[in-house]
Amino acid sequence: MPEALQLYRQGVEAGEHALGKEAFEEDVGHFWGILETRPYMRARAGLAECLWTSGKHDEAIQHYKDMLRLNPNDNQGIRDLLMPRLIETGRDEEAEALFMEYQDDGMAFWACARALLDFRKMGDAEISRKSLKAAVKKNGHIPAYLLGRKKMPQSLPEYYSPGAETEAMFYVKENLQAWKTTSGALEWLLDQTK
After folding, report:
1. Which residues lie below 8 Å from residue 145, measured CB to CB, with a gap of 6+?
2. Which residues are CB-contacts of 171 (< 8 A; sequence separation ≥ 6)?
């Protein structure tokens, strides 16, 4: 991992140099729309992931946040990586703000984030149960994978479809730890999905 981290850092630095300072001032907000920025954004996503895996959580979160500042349309799905990282590190207010920023996201990832955030805030309450019900309606496969009723595959498929088992696999890969670090969340999920 240290070698990968070093290579990603070099890639990000090379991208910053190649794009120039002006791009980071003038192109904020539509970064991904400029083809020349995409290798940089991919390298930065890789760097953030390596940092997270290496235990450098604050630095990883800063990269994710800055990528969303550069490209709020979030063509890379960075918000789906940032949300569980914020929850795992107990940054609920930041997670809540991120949720509000993308509240129109209709995917299961976001519906599950709402349910988990509500549980963290209120425990087993009517609002959190309602949020969980909405999340399960988006993808009914997610609870079985979160609870270990279904085993995760050795490697993830190349893509997923909304509402499908493949989406559940992708969700659980990134979000299981957020559920585990939320005291009582998996027990609550089990109780609500019997």
Report:
1. 152, 168, 169, 171, 172
2. 108, 109, 112, 139, 142, 145
Enumerate helices (H) and strands (E) in the chain, giving the number of each: 11, 0
> CA quadruple 101, 142, 156, 4: dihedral positive or negative?
positive
C-alpha–C-alpha distance, residues 92 and 48, integer Å: 20
Closest CA to 180 of 144, 134, 147, 140: 147
Which residue, chain included where needed, has tokens 């795992």? 88
Residue 175 in tokens: 């979000």
Neighbouring C-beta atoms of residue 126, cutoff 10 Å: 9
Structure tokens at 51: 């940092």
pLDDT 10s digit of each residue in the chain, 194 long? Answer: 689 999 999 999 999 999 999 999 999 999 999 999 999 999 999 999 999 999 999 999 999 999 999 999 999 999 999 999 999 999 999 999 999 999 999 999 999 999 999 999 999 999 999 999 999 999 999 999 999 999 999 999 999 999 999 999 999 999 999 999 999 999 999 999 98
Q: How many Cβ atoms from other residues are within 10 Å of residue 150's Cβ?
A: 16
Location of structure tokens 């595959």: 153
Domain boundaries, the chain: 1-76, 104-194
Long-range contacts of 96-101 (CB under 8 A, 24+ apart): 101/68, 101/72
